[in-house]
Structures
1.
Amino acid sequence: MTISPAARAEAEALFAAFRATGAAPVEADVLQPAGTLLDLYGEDIRARAYVTQDPLRGEMVLRPDFTVPVVQAHMSDGAEPARYCYMGEVFRKQDHLGPRASEYLQVGFEVFDRDAPKADAEVFALFARLLAPLAPKALTGDIGILLAAIEGLTTTPRRKAALRRHVWRPRRFRALLDRFAGRAPVSEARARLLGHLKTDSAEALMQAAGPLTGLRGADEIADRARALIEDAEAPPIAAPEAALLYDLLGLAAPADSALAHLRGIQPLMPAIAPAVDRFEARLTALRAHGIDTASLPFEASHGRTTLEYYDGFVFTFHAGDAGAETPPLASGGRYDALTAILGQGRSIPAVGGIIRPALVAERKGA
Amino acid sequence: MSLKIGVPSKGRLMEKTFDWFGARGVTMARTGSEREYAGAVEGIDGVELVLLSAGEIPRELAAGRIHLGVTGSDLVRDKLADWNKQVAELAPLGFGHADLIIAVPACWIDVDTLDDLDAAASAFRAKHGFRLRIATKYHRLVRDFLTANGVADYQLVDSQGATEGTVKNLTAEAIADITSTGETLRANHLKILTDAVIHRSQATLFLSHRADWGAERAVLEALVAKLGLSAPALSG
């Protein structure tokens, strides 16, 4: 789909507005090395990005977003705090017939600042101001509260790690939580294996099952067998504790009411206290920017189905009458975990977002 | 103008297709020399036989260059995005049965389900520094299935044949492939995950929504009547 002159003009205007805040403009190559992105996002990105072969540089992708190159640019020669903005085409394969473009413009703004609540509020308020003429529907969330709640569960570190790993895959998360809470039965195959492991060693069972084939070694198989025995012996997550987590996953309320609710359950889930403090500080900072937090929609599970990416504050802006199928006008959030991976342990708190100028132009023309 | 029907150009799939149509009064046969890909249809007017590789039939249906086509339901689902918007299933033909499954080494006593595969993939990535590799040629079907089931930390590696051998050759840790009896899997010391039947495939007669359905509409009606099928809804 050709990028319309109206979309390009809108992109230029938004880019100018971002620059006017003092943000430094960043350029990024359209062709990005595939390795980093594939390692970060896995098969999800292979399904969505155009992967191609370069005779000298190996597998390359057509830029699916700007976040990774911007983070890399910041890490190689940026000083903190820093604000960056960018504008350009991104490329996403669309696997369904329909109006979604596979090549479109993004205009983005990213903040690297250690005062997280202040930076979160700054980004959200800037987006809200730029989109205000369209009267969009905003929705916010906070993955950090979910992660803190998981950390606080009274269960084994292995179960917590499994839940943490699947925060972004709600279906598997639910299945795991059901199993750890004793709500779902153990699979027949698992029960049989645990039965065998009562009388035989893992090594003996492997020998009986067949020759050792492939790269996954006998030690790895035996390790997991031990982990399964340990897991079977661990008590289920207590029902009231699991109920609190289910309740938290379903929390949807205006931000101020959500805060009151979280403060209410905090004595039962003390581990979420620091995350709720951050939430409160963010709401205070948002109010300082003139955002009405008494009516700002908040959903604890918002942002869980996007790429494995955001781990704190998340937000989207949708056109007022847009259906669920339409992509948001703008989206963004905090991605400290991603910068930690790219920085090989160096922590670089980061928050940002993108606007789709084509959708903005379309709404303005409508 | 004639209604073009694409049929696999050789082997058991072709013979079984000819048998299926023959049993319903539509005789298909190859014509010319043994090596020439030409065919004829008797018993109904206005139908043209197009002999094609089974693997190309989904693409030809999607492009609308053939009106009808016989191929595996697995190939259509894997090769066509939103397959059921591009083509319609007219009839399963009752042969060419095969299941697309996920298999792992039989010695993995700790892995029997997708839940296990996911946990093993997580540990494998932590230990080896790369994602657990699943060899397949059915990229779309396998990826959609694993995404829907929330499996992470894997990667697909392409394997266009002898997929069962990739594990032994250390180019993959697991495979996703079609099997009918499971014999090749067992011979290569692999076992099927209990909850990972991705698709049960069989030879199927498909209709192209993209093809030009002008005068061919009447031929289609006559053909489906003769085959004892209900008339499909044509879009457009």
Note: Chain A has a mean pLDDT of 92.
2.
Amino acid sequence: MEELKYHLNVNRRTFLHRSAIGIGGLALGALLQDSCKSAHDNSRLSMGALPHFPPKAKRIIYLFQSGAPSQLELYDWKPKLRDLNGQELPASVRNGQRLTGMTANQKSFPLVGSKVDFKQYGQSGSWFSDLLPHTAKIADDLCIIKSMHTEAINHDPAVTFFQTGNQQPGRPSIGSWLSYGLGSENSNLPAFVVLLSRGKGNIQPLASRVWGSAFLPSEHQGVQFRGGADPVLYLNNAEGLDSLSRRKMLDVLSQLNHHQLEKFGDPEISARISQYEMAHRMQTSVPDLTDLSDEPDSTFKLYGAEAMIPGTYAANCLLARRMCERGVRFVQLYNMGWDAHSDVTGMTSRLAKDVDQASAALVTDLKQRGLLEDTLVVWGGEFGRTNFSQGLMADNFGRDHHPRCFTIWMAGAGIKAGITYGETDDFGYNIVQNPVHVHDFQATLLHLFGIDHERFVFPYQGRRFRLTDVSGSVVHDILS
Amino acid sequence: MDVVLFRKNSMAFLSQRWTLMGMALIIGVVCLANLCTSVNDTDKPLPKVVDFNWHIRPILSDRCFACHGPDEGKRKANLRFDTREGAFSPVDTLNGVPRFAILPGNPEQSLLVQRICSSSQDSIMPPLDSHLSLTSYEKQLLIRWIEQGAPWKNHWAFTAPERPKVPEVAKNGWNQNPIDAFVLEKLTENDLSPSEETDKARLLRRASFALTGLPPTPAQLQQFLQHDAPDAYDKVVDDLLNTAAYGERWTMYWLDLARYADTHGYQDDLPRTMWPWRDWVINAFNKNMPYDQFVTWQLAGDLLPDKSKETLLASAFNRNHKISQEGGVIEEEYRVEYVADRTNTFGKAFLGLTLECARCHDHKYDPISTREYYSTFAFFNNLDERGFVPNLETPKPYMVISAADYDGSLPFLNKRSGLKKPQDTILQMVMQDSIGLRNTYRLVRGKYDQPGEMVTPTLPAAVLPFDTLTFQQNRLGMSQWLFSPANPLTARVWVNRLWQEVFGRGIVQTSENFGVQGALPSHPELLDWLAVEFRESGWDIKHILRLMVTSATFKQSAVANQDRLAKDPENNWLSRGPRVRMPYEFLRDNILSSSGLLVQELGGPSVKPWQPPGLWEEISTEKTANAFRGEYSYVTDTLPEKKYRRSLYTYQRRTIPPPTHLTFDAPMRDNCEVRRTRSNTPLQALVLLHDKQVLEAADALAALLLQDPQLTNPTDLLNAAFQRIMTRAPDPTEMRLLVQYFENERARPDPDTLQKPSVSTQKNTTPKDQNALMLTITVIYNMDEAIVM
């Protein structure tokens, strides 16, 4: 028995040491525990203890709008484009911007104004199009950034850039970085969760690498939650195996593994024993999370009836709130379908209808529950859309990809409410004030979590890698 | 007493870095060592003799090179520590007297010491805004090194290995071959001794997984246990090396390195045909093709004077990179990306170097300039290829494989694959230079549309000067350079990876990086001995593996007692045998093999075993009227001869890799990877408890055993099950626990409620036995030992 105790102690020590591969190494699935803050080794000395300073945000819900919503139909009102409808985009405005393979050979670039009307809302007087009636109602809770810009001009590299800081695959996603850096806030759910939904639009594929952990330890991968009976892959018992049998199985397994541990003294064995216990706890905590039967009718009134249908954007927003309540650090939603190369008006209307109510409901709901104070909510896509028509002018015109300006919004923890930040020119083509680069956005996001993005590094292949690569500045103007 | 090095009022002066060191001389007679000791926060004793390679360069590289290293563009104060000349040249002169960063024997007068020990925020090195710092231990190391005369050595990995003398140490009959002498020497130095030999069954299992990725068969085990001859183990090792499974196991490793996948990898991620190349790799490993030939064919099979269809197929190695089919891409941007991918892969796969760090600027740590990066890039930049590939076209250049090749030039291809009619063909991407197609330029900041000066093909001189009189300036010459006896890296890098795969970690732990930021070898002489032995054996991979697995070091028991855990927690000194969690492929193959489901067939198109439904549909694009948007649904193979194949044949879709593989740390195949991490997570537990494939195997094994007339009682049944999974009999405690569990489950009042996955195996068993045994087998599959090797 003394021998075993000794093993367990050494095991713990050695295990902490071995977990040097990740700051949250012992956080195992980032699922296991939160002691990562105390773990440190040489490679981390320069990084210092995390968080670097008191955080404003404890958790984040990122409502990623995949395919790139048109800022010109939703947030960035450009009456001048209506005046100039059909006229050629002046070369002086385009100013050498490279175009995608889809419009590069286009002979003419006719400007097209939005067919959708815009109004100002709230005390802040922020502009919203008629496609966003619900979001308009929470105008005073939002910080609308109209001056986002990126480097990529196509979906795969642009989404990868937003989510990992690099256009080419091979870097960890934001959620993996946070899981690695801050560990988990709960002991029976993952720290980083991914939820997918598909809108009625032009769907561009996603790659699971955008929630992958790349060179960070794989326990920091995003864990996908899915609509349906098996919300987490491999979570459910074999049909017919009741929980009592499962418990008995785990008990005998634990005894067998303890027996092994006594014999071999390998710390990995004790870690594995803990993992099985954690897995078992997840079997209870996950269904408890995804079972919406305890939600009152008012919830579905707020989020919309679609929230009752698993796998919809609305249902995912509601799940995101429930995850926040349970201490999930990073909830990453992807809603697909915004890629309006044709019929931008129709497609954007349909997609907006899918997301408008639930997005606004989420912010309202978090606020009502006092969670918005330390929960950050982000809404946005991977780039914007052109002010000119893709192809010839037509009634159902579409818009191509545009990297130079687009709109996202942020709300909640540490973010100024009821402001619009940044401005584009009358053509809606270039930024004229306060540009925010993707790396600036990422630096700001980390800042809200109390992390200095320049000091938050992981050594891999001899180099210290950062989410923000070698650039990025915190946008202090939008911080409350 | 604390000694203040600089007076406060002198701080303003010191805000400039190395260039303005006028203040430095104001230090009086201060004992710098004391100064640094006064903030000592470590109890680690300093080494008596400080070694430059071991102690000093790692510090200089990690904390100083970013501004005082090989990158000319970022170098501050014209001071560099990456070369001997740079480190010992005068930094400047003060009143006509030259001053030095490092003055051998005189730490007080060394500006480096003054700066790292400075109490001023403005003059401290590394500077605050670098977010880097030195521990007091590291400062004291630097001081002691300078006290001892600051001896300089070249980076160990850039000096060609010479065969070291085998240490004359032995432990009463322990040593089996030279490996053991090197290991024993280090053990003794570290006050450790080898562990006893592990039992025969565990040894056979360990060797079998290391060499073939599969457990031994019950017959193999039986035979080995009964065979008492002294050469019994050597014989079984030879048998293992000669199984076809050997080639599959090492191909599995090579696929990570080669970033092999069955799809193009970006956006719609359309399918591609690369499996004929994969089958060539299996065959080459099985034939024990010498490593130099193996690599030369893959690098330059299209350029060989006696090239053949087979050598051309081998060259497909360099076409395993991702290729975009996204409608909007700018072709040149992506074409450049592919060439860079080949360049980076060449560096990591064969040299253990991070060439990619020199793509946008000179390398920050290793002596590789951006110019050299693009000179290496130039070897791979001569293909008539496109950045964008239209739907379902095979990207040029490619070769055509027809049914005739199955019996002719490519006899190793799986004959059941695809080609039914004589006119059917497989188009397989390969390498082919189009001379004069384009020039290569250094790309400014790595940008595809910003060419700098023109470059010609050469390779990093710090590794080995690329003498154009000796080496052709094409990929064939590249390969000759790689396998020149003067090349310091090629042999070391590969024997280290073999070691990593056999012992669980490399002699150089960072098997991907032998540069100055990489880990140092735990057993440098052993590494060099193996490297030279490898080269002089004619690059014989099986020979090296045989040495490794027949060493006494390998045969040690994996039991870690208190003493060993305390002195060698990481098993750095190899005081015990390896015990590491298997890669996913091995553990699934073990499950299939032990349950009798495994279908052993070599090669052919990749297969799609069961995975949870819907994963592809969730993030793929549906086929539209005018475009095929890649595979929308994962269509599970239902035939046993497909779904029960070894895991290296599992279809690898890059944007949605098989979830079980990812959960167990397999890479996504986006880039060359040579070392997997080994995590230990609850999601892994969920896979092993609930993956339908595990349950199916448990059910099949239960049925198999229950139908064996010789197994009549629970003890016999469980003993047989345990043996098949663990390659050993359960000990009394294990048996007691398992029998108890089995009996309890069998006594369940409602055995029929357990829904089992359907299995093709014919069954004639009573449900309650079947259920109870299936559950008990699932328990065994979930034991830690079932997934370690």
Note: Residues 331-351 of chain B form the longest helix (21 residues).
